[in-house]
Write a structure and sequence with these properties.
By secondary structure, the protein is of the alpha/beta class. Helices cover about 35% and strands about 20% of the residues. The protein has a domain of about 210 residues: Metallo-beta-lactamase, Chain A (4-Layer Sandwich), CATH 3.60.15.10. β8 and β9 form a beta hairpin.
C-alpha cells in the first residue's frame, strides 16, 4: 500500500462508475476510502447469475460501511439484490491490507468463495505470524539502511498500525491450484509490488490491482523484506503483462482512474524507474547509506511516506547491487564492528556503467 513521488495530484473518482465488457458483463467501480484521504477501488462484476467482487477495501474505520453502501447502490442500479450476502466469489489481486481488509465483512454475511494467489495466502490465514516475521526483517533493513535509532520504532509502529487487528480468514482456493482460471476470469501472476500479485482478465477488461496505475508509480519493496517483491521481479512482470494483455481495451486499477492505453502506461512506469536508477548512480559517486539516498531522492516526505521512501530507495539500490553496478564500500567494518553499522553503497568502478534496465 502507498505511493510516493507523485508528479501531480492523482485524479480521483468518488462515485460509482459502470463499464461493460465486449461480451456484456457489467462491471462497477466502487471507490472506497481505505484510510483518511486515501482511496482504493474495489470492483463488482455481474456476469450471468454470478456476482464477483474483486478486492474489498481495507476494513479500517468506515471502509466496511462504505463498501456496504456501494453494493446497495449497485443493487438499486441493476434492480436486484446486491449486498455482502449476495457475493458469490471474492478474487483478491494481492495481499495488501487496503485490498483484503474487508474480507471479514463478506465472510460473516455469506458463504462466498475466497481466492488469492499462493504467495499471499499466509497474509490471510496466519496474519500474526507473517506480521512478526516482516517486522523482524524490517528492523534489520532499517538498521542496515542507517535510519537513526529513534526513528526506527516510529516507522515500525506505523507499519503495524493498520494490520494488528486483522484476524485470520478462511480461503477457499488459491489461483495456481485452479490453474489460474475462475470461470471466464483468466489470471496472471505478476510478482513485484506484492509477492502474490495477480492481474485478472475478463473478456476485454483487465483488473490490474496495483501492478499498473495511472499518474503514480506503484510502490516497490526490496526483496530482502519479502521474497518475490523487488524491482527486478516487478520489471519482469511488466514485460510479462505487456505480452499477455493483447486485446485489452480497458484496464481498471486499484487506485485512480482507468487506463486506456496500457502499453503506453507501462512504458512510462519503466521510464520512471530508469530515471531513479540513474539518479542514484549519479549521487553515489561518494558512499552513502540507503537512508541518505532516500533523503535526496524523496526530499520533504514525512509520516508513513518516510517508510515508503526508504523501501522504494532500498528496492532500487538492491537492484543495482544485485547486478554488480554498486558495491558496499564499508563491508569489512560492518562485518567486524560492534553494533549496527549501516552499509554504505557506492558505484562499482570496475563495472562499466550501461543501461540499468534490461526490459
Amino acid at each position: 500500500m502507498g505511493f510516493i513521488l507523485q508528479v501531480k495530484q492523482p485524479t480521483l473518482s468518488t462515485t460509482i462508475q459502470e463499464y461493460r465488457t465486449n461480451q456484456n458483463a457489467q462491471v462497477f467501480m466502487l471507490p472506497l476510502e481505505a484510510f483518511p484521504g486515501f482511496w482504493v477501488n474495489a470492483y463488482l462484476v455481474i456476469i450471468g447469475k454470478y456476482q464477483v467482487l474483486i478486492d474489498t477495501g481495507s476494513g479500517y474505520g468506515n471502509c466496511n460501511d462504505h463498501l456496504k453502501a456501494r453494493l446497495y447502490e449497485v443493487g438499486d442500479l441493476v434492480n436486484q439484490p446486491v449486498n455482502p450476502s449476495t457475493i458469490d466469489f471474492v478474487l483478491l489481486t494481492h495481499g495488501h491490507i487496503d485490498h483484503y481488509g474487508g474480507l471479514p465483512l463478506i465472510q460473516e454475511s455469506n458463504q462466498s468463495k475466497i481466492g488469492i494467489h499462493e504467495l499471499d495466502l499466509r497474509v490471510l490465514i496466519n496474519p500474526e505470524e507473517r506480521l512478526k516475521i516482516i517486522v523482524k526483517r524490517l528492523y534489520t533493513f532499517l538498521s542496515e539502511s542507517g535510519v537513526p535509532e529513534e526513528k526506527k520504532s516510529d516507522l515500525i509502529q506505523m507499519y503495524q498500525l493498520t494490520k494488528l487487528d486483522f484476524s485470520p480468514v478462511k480461503v477457499d482456493f488459491t489461483f495456481e491450484s485452479i490453474r489460474m482460471k475462475v470461470g471466464p476470469f483468466e489470471i496472471l501472476h505478476v510478482p513485484g509490488h506484492c509477492a502474490g500479485h495477480v492481474v485478472i482478465r475478463l473478456h476485454d477488461i483487465l483488473f490490474c490491482g496495483d501492478h499498473v496505475l495511472n499518474e503514480i508509480s506503484p510502490h516497490q519493496n526490496p526483496e530482502s523484506l519479502v521474497r518475490y517483491t523487488g524491482l527486478g521481479h516487478y520489471l519482469n512482470s511488466l514485460k510479462l503483462l505487456s505480452d499477455w494483455a493483447e486485446g485489452i481495451s480497458l484496464t481498471l486499477a486499484g487506485h485512480n482512474g482507468p487506463i486506456e492505453d496500457l502499453s503506453a502506461r507501462i512504458k512510462e512506469i519503466v521510464a520512471v524507474h530508469q530515471l531513479r536508477l540513474r539518479y542514484i548512480l549519479d549521487i553515489l559517486n561518494k558512499p552513502k547509506t540507503i537512508y541518505e539516498v532516500s533523503l535526496s531522492l524523496f526530499p520533504g516526505v514525512n509520516g508513513f511516506n518516510d517508510l515508503l521512501a526508504l523501501e522504494e530507495t532500498g528496492a532500487h539500490i538492491e537492484y543495482l547491487y544485485q547486478r554488480g553496478i554498486l558495491a558496499i564500500n564499508n563491508l569489512e567494518s560492518c562485518l567486524q564492528g560492534e553494533g549496527n553499522i549501516p552499509f554504505c553503497y557506492c558505484v562499482n568502478l570496475s563495472k562499466p556503467r550501461t543501461d540499468t534496465i534490461s526490459w
